[in-house]
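To fix ideas at the outset, we first show an illustrative case, written as a sequence plus integers encoding its fold:
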Amino acid sequence: MSITKTTDIPEVGDTAVKIMEFNAEDTRRFLKIQEEIREMDEMIALRHARQEGVEEGLEQGVEKGSRDTLVGLVKKGLLTVAQAAQEADMTEAEFEALMGKSG
């Protein structure tokens, strides 16, 4: 490929030469780097999603465990439904429904 200078302004002519020298190998390297960045972004996003899932699962597990414990204490007569409902931040009706679900 021949490069023809179309201006006598040195800075513009030098820039044109540099742009035209951006060859196929440079393009392949650039595309490879872009792909690696995209893969790293996906990996980071997946890691964040997993972490959020783990945190949400733990939170739900703790909540379920606490409610199961409260249901057990009510069934043993150690707590009233009103006390357990208050502790679970529920109405008495909601807590009684929860007790019905847990058997």
